[in-house]
Amino acid sequence: MKNLFRFLIIICAVLMATSGIVGQAYAQTPTPPTGQTITIEGDQFVVGNTYVLAKDQTLNGNLAIVGGTATLEDGSMVNGDILVLGGMLSMAGKVDGDMIAIGGVVNMQDSAELTGQIVRIGSLLNVGNAQITGGVKEGFREDFNLSNPSAPIPFEIPATPEQPAPEAPSAALKVLWALVQSLTLAALAVVVTLFLPKPTERVVDTLHGETWITGGVGILTILAFPVLLVVMIVTILLIPFTPIAVLVLAVAVVYGWIAVGYELGQRMAELFKAEWAGPVSAGLGTLALTLVVRAVGIIPCMGWVVGVIVGIFGLGAVVISRFGVLKFSARPQPTVSVAQPPVEPPPTTPEA
Protein backbone atom coordinates (compact mmCIF):
# COMPACT_ATOMS: atom_id res chain seq x y z
CA MET A 1 0.00 0.00 0.00
CA LYS A 2 2.86 2.37 0.78
CA ASN A 3 4.48 1.79 -2.63
CA LEU A 4 1.13 2.35 -4.36
CA PHE A 5 0.69 5.62 -2.47
CA ARG A 6 4.14 6.76 -3.55
CA PHE A 7 3.41 5.83 -7.16
CA LEU A 8 0.18 7.86 -7.12
CA ILE A 9 2.08 10.85 -5.77
CA ILE A 10 4.58 10.59 -8.64
CA ILE A 11 1.76 10.34 -11.19
CA CYS A 12 0.07 13.46 -9.78
CA ALA A 13 3.34 15.36 -9.83
CA VAL A 14 3.96 14.42 -13.46
CA LEU A 15 0.48 15.55 -14.43
CA MET A 16 1.06 18.87 -12.66
CA ALA A 17 4.38 19.34 -14.46
CA THR A 18 2.86 18.61 -17.88
CA SER A 19 -0.44 20.42 -17.33
CA GLY A 20 0.57 23.19 -19.75
CA ILE A 21 -0.10 20.89 -22.73
CA VAL A 22 -3.82 20.68 -22.02
CA GLY A 23 -4.12 24.19 -20.66
CA GLN A 24 -7.58 23.94 -19.08
CA ALA A 25 -9.44 21.93 -16.45
CA TYR A 26 -12.70 20.29 -17.38
CA ALA A 27 -15.73 19.44 -15.27
CA GLN A 28 -17.98 16.49 -16.05
CA THR A 29 -21.77 16.87 -16.10
CA PRO A 30 -24.46 14.39 -17.16
CA THR A 31 -25.75 14.17 -20.72
CA PRO A 32 -28.37 16.88 -21.35
CA PRO A 33 -31.90 15.62 -22.00
CA THR A 34 -32.86 15.31 -25.66
CA GLY A 35 -35.80 17.07 -27.25
CA GLN A 36 -35.13 20.34 -25.42
CA THR A 37 -33.58 23.56 -26.71
CA ILE A 38 -31.10 24.42 -24.01
CA THR A 39 -27.72 26.12 -23.67
CA ILE A 40 -25.05 24.43 -21.56
CA GLU A 41 -22.49 26.64 -19.89
CA GLY A 42 -19.09 25.30 -18.87
CA ASP A 43 -16.61 22.66 -20.00
CA GLN A 44 -17.61 19.01 -20.31
CA PHE A 45 -15.34 16.08 -19.38
CA VAL A 46 -16.40 12.60 -20.55
CA VAL A 47 -14.35 9.75 -18.99
CA GLY A 48 -15.45 6.25 -19.99
CA ASN A 49 -19.01 7.51 -20.37
CA THR A 50 -21.49 8.45 -23.11
CA TYR A 51 -22.34 12.05 -23.99
CA VAL A 52 -24.92 13.22 -26.54
CA LEU A 53 -25.45 16.83 -27.61
CA ALA A 54 -28.82 16.72 -29.35
CA LYS A 55 -30.31 18.94 -32.05
CA ASP A 56 -30.82 22.64 -31.18
CA GLN A 57 -28.59 22.25 -28.10
CA THR A 58 -25.57 24.54 -27.60
CA LEU A 59 -22.46 23.96 -25.50
CA ASN A 60 -20.60 27.11 -24.51
CA GLY A 61 -17.37 25.47 -23.41
CA ASN A 62 -14.76 22.88 -24.27
CA LEU A 63 -15.44 19.17 -24.66
CA ALA A 64 -12.93 16.48 -23.63
CA ILE A 65 -13.52 12.78 -24.35
CA VAL A 66 -11.13 10.44 -22.51
CA GLY A 67 -11.92 6.79 -23.19
CA GLY A 68 -15.59 7.64 -23.68
CA THR A 69 -18.08 8.16 -26.50
CA ALA A 70 -19.61 11.49 -27.57
CA THR A 71 -22.17 12.30 -30.26
CA LEU A 72 -22.84 15.75 -31.68
CA GLU A 73 -26.09 15.48 -33.58
CA ASP A 74 -27.03 17.52 -36.63
CA GLY A 75 -28.11 20.98 -35.50
CA SER A 76 -26.00 21.01 -32.33
CA MET A 77 -23.41 23.70 -31.62
CA VAL A 78 -20.16 23.70 -29.61
CA ASN A 79 -18.53 27.04 -28.91
CA GLY A 80 -15.15 25.74 -27.80
CA ASP A 81 -12.38 23.24 -28.48
CA ILE A 82 -12.63 19.45 -28.53
CA LEU A 83 -10.06 16.97 -27.18
CA VAL A 84 -10.40 13.27 -28.05
CA LEU A 85 -7.98 11.16 -26.00
CA GLY A 86 -8.52 7.47 -26.69
CA GLY A 87 -12.26 8.02 -27.15
CA MET A 88 -14.81 8.02 -29.95
CA LEU A 89 -16.53 11.08 -31.41
CA SER A 90 -19.39 11.08 -33.91
CA MET A 91 -19.89 14.63 -35.17
CA ALA A 92 -22.73 15.94 -37.33
CA GLY A 93 -23.13 19.42 -35.86
CA LYS A 94 -21.01 22.57 -35.81
CA VAL A 95 -17.94 23.29 -33.70
CA ASP A 96 -16.56 26.80 -33.42
CA GLY A 97 -13.03 25.91 -32.36
CA ASP A 98 -10.16 23.44 -32.83
CA MET A 99 -10.01 19.69 -32.38
CA ILE A 100 -7.17 17.45 -31.15
CA ALA A 101 -7.50 13.67 -31.58
CA ILE A 102 -4.90 11.49 -29.81
CA GLY A 103 -5.30 7.75 -30.14
CA GLY A 104 -9.06 7.96 -30.73
CA VAL A 105 -11.69 7.62 -33.45
CA VAL A 106 -13.39 10.64 -35.04
CA ASN A 107 -16.19 10.17 -37.55
CA MET A 108 -17.49 13.40 -39.13
CA GLN A 109 -20.74 13.37 -41.09
CA ASP A 110 -21.30 15.41 -44.23
CA SER A 111 -23.27 17.99 -42.24
CA ALA A 112 -20.42 18.55 -39.75
CA GLU A 113 -18.62 21.89 -39.72
CA LEU A 114 -15.42 22.87 -37.90
CA THR A 115 -14.19 26.47 -37.98
CA GLY A 116 -10.71 25.62 -36.69
CA GLN A 117 -8.19 22.91 -37.52
CA ILE A 118 -7.87 19.24 -36.61
CA VAL A 119 -4.61 17.95 -35.11
CA ARG A 120 -4.42 14.18 -35.55
CA ILE A 121 -1.94 12.14 -33.48
CA GLY A 122 -2.19 8.37 -33.95
CA SER A 123 -5.97 8.41 -34.37
CA LEU A 124 -8.49 7.25 -36.96
CA LEU A 125 -10.20 10.13 -38.76
CA ASN A 126 -13.06 10.07 -41.26
CA VAL A 127 -14.02 13.56 -42.48
CA GLY A 128 -16.11 12.69 -45.53
CA ASN A 129 -17.56 15.88 -47.02
CA ALA A 130 -17.43 17.80 -43.74
CA GLN A 131 -16.35 21.45 -43.80
CA ILE A 132 -13.04 22.03 -42.00
CA THR A 133 -11.85 25.62 -42.24
CA GLY A 134 -8.38 25.12 -40.74
CA GLY A 135 -7.65 21.79 -42.42
CA VAL A 136 -6.16 18.62 -40.95
CA LYS A 137 -2.63 18.47 -39.55
CA GLU A 138 -0.72 15.28 -38.80
CA GLY A 139 1.43 15.04 -35.69
CA PHE A 140 2.05 17.59 -32.98
CA ARG A 141 1.35 21.25 -33.44
CA GLU A 142 4.17 23.73 -33.22
CA ASP A 143 2.76 25.17 -30.00
CA PHE A 144 3.16 21.76 -28.31
CA ASN A 145 6.96 21.86 -28.81
CA LEU A 146 8.10 22.92 -25.36
CA SER A 147 11.69 23.24 -26.60
CA ASN A 148 10.65 26.03 -28.97
CA PRO A 149 10.12 29.19 -26.91
CA SER A 150 9.05 31.14 -29.99
CA ALA A 151 6.03 28.89 -30.61
CA PRO A 152 2.65 30.59 -31.02
CA ILE A 153 -0.07 30.55 -28.40
CA PRO A 154 -2.20 27.37 -28.45
CA PHE A 155 -5.47 27.65 -30.34
CA GLU A 156 -4.49 30.98 -31.83
CA ILE A 157 -7.43 32.61 -33.64
CA PRO A 158 -6.81 34.43 -36.94
CA ALA A 159 -7.27 38.16 -36.98
CA THR A 160 -10.77 39.34 -37.93
CA PRO A 161 -12.34 42.80 -37.92
CA GLU A 162 -14.53 41.77 -34.99
CA GLN A 163 -11.82 39.98 -32.99
CA PRO A 164 -8.16 40.94 -33.46
CA ALA A 165 -5.44 38.34 -33.10
CA PRO A 166 -3.95 37.98 -29.62
CA GLU A 167 -0.61 39.57 -29.02
CA ALA A 168 2.41 37.28 -29.06
CA PRO A 169 4.09 36.77 -25.69
CA SER A 170 7.07 38.98 -25.04
CA ALA A 171 10.63 37.71 -24.73
CA ALA A 172 10.61 38.32 -20.98
CA LEU A 173 7.44 36.23 -20.62
CA LYS A 174 9.03 33.39 -22.62
CA VAL A 175 12.12 33.44 -20.43
CA LEU A 176 9.97 33.48 -17.30
CA TRP A 177 7.92 30.55 -18.55
CA ALA A 178 11.08 28.57 -19.37
CA LEU A 179 12.39 29.24 -15.85
CA VAL A 180 9.11 28.14 -14.29
CA GLN A 181 9.16 24.88 -16.27
CA SER A 182 12.78 24.21 -15.34
CA LEU A 183 12.12 24.83 -11.64
CA THR A 184 9.03 22.60 -11.78
CA LEU A 185 11.00 19.72 -13.28
CA ALA A 186 13.78 20.25 -10.73
CA ALA A 187 11.27 20.13 -7.86
CA LEU A 188 9.72 17.02 -9.38
CA ALA A 189 13.19 15.42 -9.56
CA VAL A 190 13.72 16.10 -5.86
CA VAL A 191 10.35 14.55 -4.99
CA VAL A 192 10.96 11.48 -7.15
CA THR A 193 14.41 10.91 -5.67
CA LEU A 194 13.07 11.28 -2.13
CA PHE A 195 10.24 8.80 -2.59
CA LEU A 196 11.95 6.42 -5.03
CA PRO A 197 15.69 6.58 -4.31
CA LYS A 198 16.59 2.99 -5.20
CA PRO A 199 14.59 2.75 -8.47
CA THR A 200 16.02 6.08 -9.61
CA GLU A 201 19.55 4.91 -8.89
CA ARG A 202 18.89 1.72 -10.87
CA VAL A 203 17.73 3.77 -13.87
CA VAL A 204 20.84 5.94 -13.61
CA ASP A 205 23.09 2.87 -13.33
CA THR A 206 21.47 1.42 -16.45
CA LEU A 207 21.98 4.70 -18.30
CA HIS A 208 25.60 4.87 -17.21
CA GLY A 209 26.42 1.20 -17.86
CA GLU A 210 24.57 0.62 -21.14
CA THR A 211 24.60 4.04 -22.74
CA TRP A 212 24.39 3.05 -26.39
CA ILE A 213 21.94 0.23 -25.76
CA THR A 214 19.60 2.62 -23.94
CA GLY A 215 19.70 4.93 -26.94
CA GLY A 216 18.73 2.11 -29.29
CA VAL A 217 15.92 0.93 -27.03
CA GLY A 218 14.65 4.50 -26.74
CA ILE A 219 14.47 4.86 -30.53
CA LEU A 220 12.69 1.51 -30.88
CA THR A 221 10.18 2.53 -28.21
CA ILE A 222 9.39 5.80 -29.99
CA LEU A 223 8.94 3.98 -33.31
CA ALA A 224 6.86 1.15 -31.86
CA PHE A 225 4.51 3.26 -29.76
CA PRO A 226 2.39 4.64 -32.68
CA VAL A 227 2.06 1.10 -34.02
CA LEU A 228 0.87 -0.03 -30.59
CA LEU A 229 -1.73 2.75 -30.52
CA VAL A 230 -3.03 1.77 -33.95
CA VAL A 231 -3.31 -1.87 -32.87
CA MET A 232 -5.19 -0.87 -29.72
CA ILE A 233 -7.58 1.27 -31.76
CA VAL A 234 -8.19 -1.42 -34.37
CA THR A 235 -9.08 -3.97 -31.70
CA ILE A 236 -11.85 -1.59 -30.48
CA LEU A 237 -11.93 -3.26 -27.05
CA LEU A 238 -8.56 -1.72 -26.15
CA ILE A 239 -9.54 1.85 -27.09
CA PRO A 240 -10.32 2.83 -23.45
CA PHE A 241 -6.75 1.81 -22.53
CA THR A 242 -5.08 4.14 -25.03
CA PRO A 243 -5.05 7.09 -22.56
CA ILE A 244 -3.27 4.83 -20.07
CA ALA A 245 -0.65 3.95 -22.68
CA VAL A 246 -0.11 7.63 -23.49
CA LEU A 247 0.17 8.42 -19.76
CA VAL A 248 2.70 5.62 -19.20
CA LEU A 249 4.84 6.91 -22.07
CA ALA A 250 4.69 10.47 -20.69
CA VAL A 251 5.71 9.26 -17.22
CA ALA A 252 8.57 7.22 -18.73
CA VAL A 253 9.87 10.22 -20.69
CA VAL A 254 9.76 12.51 -17.63
CA TYR A 255 11.33 9.83 -15.42
CA GLY A 256 14.12 9.30 -17.96
CA TRP A 257 14.71 13.06 -18.13
CA ILE A 258 15.09 13.12 -14.34
CA ALA A 259 17.52 10.18 -14.52
CA VAL A 260 19.71 12.04 -17.02
CA GLY A 261 19.56 15.10 -14.77
CA TYR A 262 20.55 12.94 -11.79
CA GLU A 263 23.59 11.67 -13.69
CA LEU A 264 24.49 15.23 -14.66
CA GLY A 265 24.14 16.32 -11.04
CA GLN A 266 26.57 13.63 -9.92
CA ARG A 267 29.08 14.79 -12.54
CA MET A 268 28.65 18.36 -11.33
CA ALA A 269 29.34 17.24 -7.76
CA GLU A 270 32.55 15.53 -8.89
CA LEU A 271 33.55 18.66 -10.80
CA PHE A 272 33.14 20.85 -7.72
CA LYS A 273 34.69 18.14 -5.51
CA ALA A 274 31.62 18.07 -3.28
CA GLU A 275 29.37 15.39 -1.87
CA TRP A 276 25.70 16.02 -2.63
CA ALA A 277 22.80 13.95 -1.48
CA GLY A 278 20.73 12.15 -4.11
CA PRO A 279 17.82 14.63 -4.13
CA VAL A 280 20.23 17.57 -4.35
CA SER A 281 22.07 16.04 -7.30
CA ALA A 282 18.82 15.21 -9.05
CA GLY A 283 17.34 18.66 -8.50
CA LEU A 284 20.39 20.69 -9.54
CA GLY A 285 21.21 18.37 -12.45
CA THR A 286 17.66 18.44 -13.80
CA LEU A 287 17.52 22.22 -13.46
CA ALA A 288 20.80 22.67 -15.33
CA LEU A 289 19.83 20.11 -17.99
CA THR A 290 16.45 21.72 -18.67
CA LEU A 291 17.86 25.24 -18.84
CA VAL A 292 20.61 24.18 -21.24
CA VAL A 293 18.23 22.26 -23.50
CA ARG A 294 15.78 25.17 -23.65
CA ALA A 295 18.63 27.60 -24.36
CA VAL A 296 19.93 25.40 -27.17
CA GLY A 297 16.36 25.04 -28.46
CA ILE A 298 16.46 28.68 -29.56
CA ILE A 299 18.84 27.71 -32.39
CA PRO A 300 16.78 27.44 -35.59
CA CYS A 301 16.25 24.06 -37.25
CA MET A 302 18.71 22.08 -35.12
CA GLY A 303 18.00 23.32 -31.60
CA TRP A 304 15.39 20.64 -30.85
CA VAL A 305 17.83 17.78 -31.55
CA VAL A 306 19.50 18.00 -28.13
CA GLY A 307 16.21 17.64 -26.28
CA VAL A 308 15.18 14.69 -28.43
CA ILE A 309 18.49 12.91 -27.83
CA VAL A 310 18.25 13.41 -24.06
CA GLY A 311 14.67 12.13 -24.06
CA ILE A 312 15.57 9.05 -26.12
CA PHE A 313 18.45 7.97 -23.87
CA GLY A 314 16.42 8.56 -20.71
CA LEU A 315 13.43 6.67 -22.09
CA GLY A 316 15.63 3.73 -23.07
CA ALA A 317 17.09 3.52 -19.56
CA VAL A 318 13.61 3.50 -18.03
CA VAL A 319 12.41 0.77 -20.40
CA ILE A 320 15.45 -1.47 -19.86
CA SER A 321 15.29 -1.15 -16.07
CA ARG A 322 11.47 -1.49 -16.03
CA PHE A 323 11.06 1.86 -14.25
CA GLY A 324 13.93 1.00 -11.90
CA VAL A 325 12.64 -2.43 -10.87
CA LEU A 326 15.51 -4.38 -12.45
CA LYS A 327 18.99 -3.83 -11.09
CA PHE A 328 21.73 -3.22 -13.62
CA SER A 329 24.46 -5.85 -13.64
CA ALA A 330 27.67 -5.42 -15.59
CA ARG A 331 28.33 -7.97 -18.29
CA PRO A 332 30.87 -10.58 -17.23
CA GLN A 333 34.15 -10.22 -19.05
CA PRO A 334 35.30 -13.36 -20.91
CA THR A 335 38.25 -15.07 -19.30
CA VAL A 336 41.08 -16.47 -21.40
CA SER A 337 42.70 -19.59 -19.99
CA VAL A 338 46.24 -20.51 -21.06
CA ALA A 339 46.87 -24.23 -21.42
CA GLN A 340 49.77 -25.40 -19.30
CA PRO A 341 52.16 -27.98 -20.78
CA PRO A 342 51.94 -31.40 -19.14
CA VAL A 343 54.40 -31.97 -16.30
CA GLU A 344 56.66 -35.00 -16.89
CA PRO A 345 57.24 -37.23 -13.87
CA PRO A 346 60.82 -37.21 -12.48
CA PRO A 347 63.08 -40.05 -13.66
CA THR A 348 63.26 -43.05 -11.41
CA THR A 349 66.61 -44.49 -10.28
CA PRO A 350 67.17 -48.31 -10.12
CA GLU A 351 67.31 -49.82 -6.71
CA ALA A 352 70.65 -50.92 -5.45
Describe the structure in your own words:
The chain has helices spanning 2-17, 171-195, 197-209, 211-234, 242-271, 278-296, 304-320, and strands spanning 39-41, 44-47, 50-53, 58-60, 63-66, 69-72, 77-78, 82-85, 88-91, 94-95, 99-102, 105-108, 113-114, 118-121, 124-126, 131-132, 136-138. A six-stranded parallel β-sheet has the order 1-4-7-10-13-16, with no helix packed on it. 32% of the residues are buried. Helix 3 packs across helix 5 (242-271), helix 4 (211-234) packs across helix 7 (304-320) and helix 5 packs across helix 6 (278-296). 41% of the residues lie in helices and 16% in strands. It is elongated. It folds into two domains: 24-139, no CATH class; 171-320, no CATH class. With 352 residues, the chain is of the alpha/beta class.
Walk me through the topology:
Layout lengths: L1 H16 L21 E3 L2 E4 L2 E4 L4 E3 L2 E4 L2 E4 L4 E2 L3 E4 L2 E4 L2 E2 L3 E4 L2 E4 L4 E2 L3 E4 L2 E3 L4 E2 L3 E3 L32 H25 L1 H13 L1 H24 L7 H30 L6 H19 L7 H17 L32
Helix pairs in contact: 1-2, 2-5, 2-6, 3-5, 3-7, 4-7, 5-6, 5-7
Features:
alpha/beta, 6-stranded parallel β-sheet, 2 domains, 352 residues, elongated, 7 helices
What is the overall shape?
elongated
Helix content: 40-55%
Structural class: alpha/beta
Strand content: 15-25%
Would you count the extended β strands for me? 17
Question: Could you tell me the mean pLDDT?
Answer: 75
Gap between N and C termini, in Å?
87 Å
Report the uncertain regions: 1-29, 140-163
Tally of individual domains: 2
